[in-house]
Design a protein that fits this description.
This protein is mostly beta strands. Helices cover 14% and strands 52% of the residues.
Amino acid sequence: MFSKIILLAGMSVVVLFISACAFTSYQTVNPTDYPEIHKNFDATIGWSATRNSGLTKVAGYVRNNRYSSMQDLELRVSHLDAAGVEMEQKIFFVIPSSLPLDEVAGFSVEFSNDFKPGDKLRFFYRYKGVEDNEDALPWMSSFEVSL
């Protein structure tokens, strides 16, 4: 009886480890689903904004254009009013924390503020860029777009 319990526990651990591996990669993202695009030397960010019941959802992707790996990629999306005052900010961390060269990771944030004509989005991203066996290079960039 005891050996059956040990065997069952061992099998449960194996199943747990195997299923965890299924969640350690990025979800499939189709860049053509996102009509708005900002290209920089290091990253391409594509997105779309949809409004529904007073909420605005900004969903999209980040593509690594430059480094062997972008580590600890953080994306901040801010709602700015027409005067440039920040109304609300959302933060998204890309998981797993290493985005390989030419790979794409999706993101999604939701704003509770109502957007008005003239409002903007500010995208700010930062990460550590890794080139082969070199040390990580901290980098950040930002851009603003009208809605």
